[in-house]
């Protein structure tokens, strides 16, 4: 059960986020604007989860790999699912603080 949850929310991933960013990936932070203004990863794009479906076409135009993040990894997992089902290459970066530590 724990392995299943880790897979869904992105924990325990061996994804090299630094490499993805060096290849032009973008970070989409799906927290609310208030949460985002309280701290975020430099150059991250804030698209709240409840607005993500309306921004899929805009993200597709960027033609970039997407790394999602949020506060804990739950919303970013949902965002990854939305984006992947729309045909975008996407990775769940989990919580923004943890992701920031992985890319520094």
Summarize the structure.
The protein is an alpha/beta fold.
Uncertain regions spanning at least 5 consecutive residues: 4-12
| Shape, per Cα inertia axes | globular
**Class from secondary-structure proportions:** alpha/beta
Q: For the record, what CATH class applies?
A: Alpha Beta
Strand content: 15-25%
Helicity, as a percent range: 40-55%
Order of SSEs, N→C?
Answer: HHEHEHEHEH
Number of domains: 1
Number of helices: 6
CATH-assigned fold name: Oxidized Rhodanese, domain 1
Radius of gyration: 12 Å
Number of distinct beta strands: 4
Mean pLDDT: 91
The name of the CATH superfamily reads Rhodanese-like domain
Give the end-to-end Cα distance, rounded to a whole number of Å: 31 Å
CATH architecture: 3-Layer(aba) Sandwich
How is the largest sheet built, in terms of strand order? 2-1-3-4
Q: In this structure, how is the largest beta sheet organized? A: 4 strands, parallel
């Amino acid at each position: 059960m724990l392995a299943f949850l880790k897979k869904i929310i992105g924990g325990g991933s061996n994804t090299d986020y630094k490499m993805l960013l060096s290849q032009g990936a973008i970070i989409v932070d799906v927290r609310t604007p208030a949460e985002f203004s309280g701290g975020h990863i430099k150059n991250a794009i804030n698209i709240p989860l409840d607005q993500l479906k309306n921004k899929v076409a805009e993200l597709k135009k960027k033609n970039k790999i997407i790394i999602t993040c949020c506060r804990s990894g739950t919303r970013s997992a949902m965002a990854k699912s939305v984006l992947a089902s729309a045909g975008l290459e996407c990775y769940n970066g989990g919580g923004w603080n943890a992701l920031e530590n992985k890319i520094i």
